[in-house]
Amino acid sequence: MSHLEMSQGPDFNSFSSSLHALSSYCALGSTPAAPPAKPSFADVVAGRTTPEQTISVLISEVQRLTMEVSQVRAFGTRTYDQLQQEKQSSAEQLEHLHRHSKRNNLVVFGVPESVALNTLASAGVRSAFRLGKWKQDQGKPRAVLVELLSVAAKHTAFQASKRLRAVKVRLEEDLTPQQMQTRRGLSTDFQWLKARGYKPFFRGITLRYRDGPLIRKCARGEANKVMAAAAQAARATAPPPPRQQQAQEPRVPEAMDPSVLLHQHGISLDGLSDPSNMVAQAAQAIIDDFDSMMHASGDDVAS
After folding, report:
1. Is the pLDDT reported for residue 113 higher than 80?
2. pLDDT confidence of 14, banded at 50, 70, 90?
3. What is the pLDDT of residue 233?
4. Mean pLDDT confidence for 94-119
5. What is the rounded distance in angstroms from the CA atom of residue 64 to the CA atom of residue 41?
6. How far apart are CA 199 and CA 208, in angstroms?
7. Contacts made by residues 139-143, CB under 8 angstroms, sequence distance 24+
8. In this predicted model, what pLDDT tens digit does every residue of 40-84 receive, in sequence order?
9. What is the 3-state secondary structure (H, E, C) of the chain?
10. Maximum distance among all alpha carbons in the chain?
11. pLDDT band at 22 (very low <50, low <70, confident <90, very high)
12. Using one digit for the tens of pLDDT, what is the confidence trace for 202-254?
């Protein structure tokens, strides 16, 4: 028996069937082929995509960039708002510290240049110096910044401000630049109240004015309301105007009433049948009565 005949025997057929069955089993258990990868923007740049794929890739890229820009913009807005809040908070803290450092200070106006500042030294004064440089053509003396030892000493000095004004010396608080700007915003209201005799004055950054025995506050832009309120109060307290009497129609004197005159002369309207005769008698009666009145008036004048 040759080798070929041996290889085609029953054993070869059985081996071939087993090999075929194994290959079929492996084919059933194998994973499917992966789908082709989605083209990227680099593929579009390299020209390896179709027009439809190019449009799809560009739309996806625009959407991605839009989302990134929105995120960057939101981050920038949050950062800007945070910086603004921190800046505002820092400015408020700095203003608070500035005011706190000036709480014991006074600015004195009207002290002659010939007065030595060491004469201002007392138990309650820490330091005193003039503000600005002296100029020969300067008409008014420079202001003096006085630093006191306590707030109580500052209040005591303000209590004596009325006596100091008698010698043309004026006391003011040492204000920060922000407080001075707030005061300048009230200058129009100050001049308006002063022109109308309300004697306005500042207490810190608050504008006040004297309304008789009372001292009132005036906010910015509300000075014109003061006159309106005063006029309304004056109208409320003013007595009501006298009532005007209605003009009465002049009464006809009884002596000139034709019916009375006819009755006095014994003329009855019922007994007259001729209207012309009635009118003539009535006219004659009025004439006779008028003549008698004129004679009576002439006798009174003559007497």
Report:
1. yes
2. low
3. 63
4. 86
5. 12
6. 9
7. 140/109, 140/110, 141/110, 141/111, 141/112, 141/113, 142/113, 143/107, 143/108, 143/109
8. 878 878 888 888 888 888 888 898 889 989 888 888 888 888 888
9. CCHHHHHCCHHHHHHHHHHHHHHHHHHHHCCCCCCCCCCCHHHHHHCCCCHHHHHHHHHHHHHHHHHHHHHHHHHHHHHHHHHHHHHHHHHHHHHHHHHHHCCCEEEEECCCCCCCHHHHCCCCEEEEEECCCCCCCCCCCCCEEEEECCHHHHHHHHHCHHHHHCCCCEEEECCCHHHHHHHHCCHHHHHHHHHCCCCCEEECCEEEEEECCEEEEECCCCHHHHHHHHHHHHHHHCCCCCCCCCCCCCCCCHHHCHHHHHHHCCCCCCCCCCHHHHHHHHHHHHHHHHHHHHHHHHHHHHC
10. 201
11. low
12. 888 888 888 878 888 888 888 877 766 666 665 666 566 666 655 555 554 54
Nearest to 117 by CA among 146, 153, 149: 146
Query: Which amino acid appears at position 265 of this protein?
Result: H
In the predicted structure, residue 118 carries a pLDDT above the cut 80: no
CB of 176 closer than 8 Å to CB of 95: yes
In one-letter notation, the amino acid at residue 291 is D
- Read off the tokens for 275: 């209207």
- Give residue 25's identity as a one-letter amino acid code: Y
Q: Say how many C-beta atoms besides its own lie within 10 A of residue 238's C-beta.
A: 8
Phi first, then psi: give them for residue 202, nearest 5 degrees: -105, 140
Q: What is the pTM of this model?
A: 0.47
Residue 99 CA to residue 87 CA, distance in Å, equals 18
What is the Cα Rg of the chain in Å? 57
Task: State the residue for tokens 């060491």.
Answer: 118
User: CA 173 to CA 176: how far, in whole Å?
Assistant: 10
